[in-house]
């Protein structure tokens, strides 16, 4: 399976179009049928939703805020340039060794987040990213001068079961749902934002 979150307005944004093209090539290379790829971005327009359906892909029915479960299947999450809260929510939703071991994430570098954020901020606001760092393998996507802004800071992340088993038992005991009460730069469009009619830009 593949789940793509936060692709953006590919109808008018060249970077988002390149990211969609890369996703289609990736599905072809991995032998994943388009019908096994689900997408969601609250910013999608009606023509963009229709274009994705014409490509054979399916749209998730609601904004899950990144809290998407694996449903028992090995899953590639394609989340280029998403907000840190989306990755954190995804990890929380699948916070078991067995689930994480079946997951691959293509998205913003976790190592880069660790380097750029103060450790107390990372642990307070994005605790699941902080806790999984020592159980993560990461490989940066090769850079290309034509696509520096399209895939900059993008890595492939996976979570080998032996490394996850090396984490302390306490890491797995806390499964509190993230709330982001103190987070000042929350880069996520939340369900209530859409329900209240807020625009993606305002959110």
From TrEMBL:
GO terms for cellular component: cytoplasm; nucleus. The keyword Signal applies. InterPro entries: SRR1-like (IPR012942), SRR1L (IPR040044). The keyword Lipid biosynthesis does not apply. It holds the Pfam family SRR1. Residues 1-158 form the SRR1-like domain. Residues 1-37 form the signal peptide. Keywords: Signal. Belongs to the SRR1 family. This is SRR1L protein. It comes from Atlantisia rogersi. The lineage of its organism: Eukaryota, Metazoa, Chordata, Craniata, Vertebrata.
